[in-house]
Design a protein that fits this description.
By secondary structure, this protein is of the alpha+beta class. The chain is 36% helix and 23% strand. A hairpin with a 3-residue loop joins β12 and β13 (175-178).
Length: 520
């Protein structure tokens, strides 16, 4: 992860219109927005709190000139995340806010007023279908889960036998994942929309005092995009993949305001527990983002809840992440809205380290080719600058010539590395076999024996059993070296093959089969 591109979590805040409950109680608007700034006013004291975010979406009054509809929210947030995903980065968008603040409306939408998830799925296949590269192929698969009462439910397989059995595992390279979660392959926008509707029908919702259709679970819709591209030069197929997590969190709520009882009360306790864990993780990561020395060793409590464990890579890990904080404009929701804004203010200090998820060889080859193009460009600039007459030689000319030689050597080295990386395993085995034969031939010429035989100056022990192969080798005529040091005598063996064997010096007028060289 240390080699990744550091980037802060992007944070957006969106304020919704009044709902019937607020209008019926004569609520007043205490939130204002200007550019990226969000201001909330305490209805009791009149004190204002100011917060600056990457985006502040004013969706309170449709008649306002600065009204931010679903199209604008997606254009500012979703399109950038989609572009990052096709670059090969893991990405995440998650919505946080109190119950009834507009999270599900932002993420999923209502009727024809589509939210981020339906628009995102449509744009994926717009890109895929507009692909004109015959060597590039796409694979798209999706999964949909909810975390309800700290248990994972597969929304593509709502059968009772599967619920509560799914477990979170963690891979050392790819991070946390849900074991045995259903993954569905998609080839069109219509297929993905059908799967989204299927999952939404299984999601747990219920009515509370704050929201008629309150989401009682955290929902995670995941999209895996795999790009396979064939390299016409090497014939290899490189793969680049990205995981997009689109998360609709359950709403935080106060039990007295939500009117929760029995099952709703139990659900609310689990929801608030997981959101509290999420807040602890965000706070710890925000402290690390400040780079204060005393905070760097602080433990990040990812495993305090299933939600934070699953979002581990999205928060402080290998992902480019966007958080959408949704708030109510009403004075009666001041405490909840202020809490959400503070939550979002901490999240913007989180630093992620995103990397492009591609085959390592493909990444190196791509970078080397980019380097070669830069070197070629520089080489052309240097060579075109050499316009002086040959007899006019200056120190600058010599420096340019040295640079030209260096650039050519670097280009040659990069090309050699690319050839080695493009070599298949079968080609490596064949090359190794050829090199072994060449080395064996060279060693034989040097008199180093590779055959299975014994070289000795003593009388052999005739009582020992000798293999037929070794016996046959012993019968071949050969010459050996003698040396003053007994340990070196017999270390060189030259076998005399059938026919004429020429023995002599390397500078002999006729090539010698056995070349001998000494001090004289």
């Amino acid at each position: 992860m240390a080699d990744g591109n550091e980037c802060n979590v992007k944070v957006a805040v969106r304020v919704r219109p009044f709902v019937k409950r607020e209008s019926g109680r004569g609520a007043k608007c205490v939130v204002t927005m200007r550019d990226r700034e969000t201001v909330i006013r305490n209805p009791g004291t009149g004190e204002e709190k100011r917060f600056a975010y990457d985006y502040s979406f004013w969706s309170h009054d449709p008649r306002d000139a600065n009204f931010a509809d679903q199209v604008r929210v997606y254009a500012d947030l979703g399109e950038g995340v989609l572009a990052d995903a096709f670059e090969g980065y893991n990405t995440c968008i998650f919505a946080y806010g109190q119950t009834g603040s507009g999270k599900s409306h932002t993420m999923m939408g209502f009727n024809k007023d589509h939210g981020i998830i339906p628009r995102f799925s449509g744009d994926i296949f717009s890109r895929v279908n507009n692909n004109r590269d015959p060597d590039l192929r796409y694979q798209v698969e999706v999964s949909y889960l909810e975390i309800y009462n700290e248990q994972i439910r597969d929304l593509f397989d709502p059968s009772p036998t599967q619920q509560g059995l799914l477990k979170v595992r963690e891979h050392p390279q790819t991070g946390p994942y849900v074991e045995n979660l259903t993954k569905m392959a998609c080839s069109s926008k219509e297929e993905m929309e059908s799967l989204i509707r299927l999952g939404n029908k299984s999601r747990t919702v219920a009515q509370t005092n704050m929201n008629a259709t309150s989401s009682r679970s955290h929902a995670v819709f995941s999209i895996r995009i795999v790009q396979q591209k064939k390299d016409n030069i090497s014939g290899r197929t490189g793969e680049k993949s990205s995981l997009v997590n689109l998360v609709d969190l359950a709403g935080s709520e106060r039990q007295k305001d939500a009117g929760s009882a029995t099952d709703r009360l139990k659900e609310g306790c689990h929801i608030n527990k997981s959101l509290h864990s999420l807040g602890n993780v965000i706070s710890a990561l925000a402290d690390m983002g400040r780079k204060t020395r005393q905070k760097l060793v602080k433990h990040i409590p990812y495993r305090d809840s299933i939600l934070t464990w699953l979002l581990k890579e999205s928060l402080g890990g290998n992902s480019r992440t966007v958080m959408i904080a949704t708030i109510s404009p009403a004075d009666i929701c001041f405490d909840e809205s202020l809490s959400t804004l503070r939550y979002a203010d901490r999240a913007k200090r989180i630093v992620n380290r995103a990397i492009i998820n591609e085959d390592e060889n493909a990444r190196v080859i791509r970078e080397l080719r980019e380097e070669i193009e830069l070197l070629k460009k520089r080489l052309l600039e240097v060579e075109q600058g050499e316009t002086k007459a040959p007899e006019v030689i200056t120190v600058r000319d010599e420096e340019l010539e040295t640079e030209v030689v260096g650039l050519r050597e670097q280009i040659a080295q990069d090309r050699k590395i690319i050839e080695e990386l493009n070599e298949t395993w079968e080609e490596k085995l064949k090359r190794t076999e050829m090199l072994a034969k060449e080395r064996a031939s060279q060693l034989v010429e040097l008199g180093i024996n590779l055959r299975e035989t014994e070289t000795t100056l003593t009388v052999p022990d005739t009582s020992r059993t000798v293999s037929p192969r070794r016996a046959a080798t012993r019968n071949l005529p050969h010459i050996i070296n003698l040396n003053e040091d007994p340990m070196l005598s017999g270390s060189l063996v030259y076998f005399l093959e059938a026919g004429i064997t020429r023995i002599g010096r390397a500078d002999a007028p006729t090539p010698q089969q056995i070349v001998l060289a000494g001090l004289n």
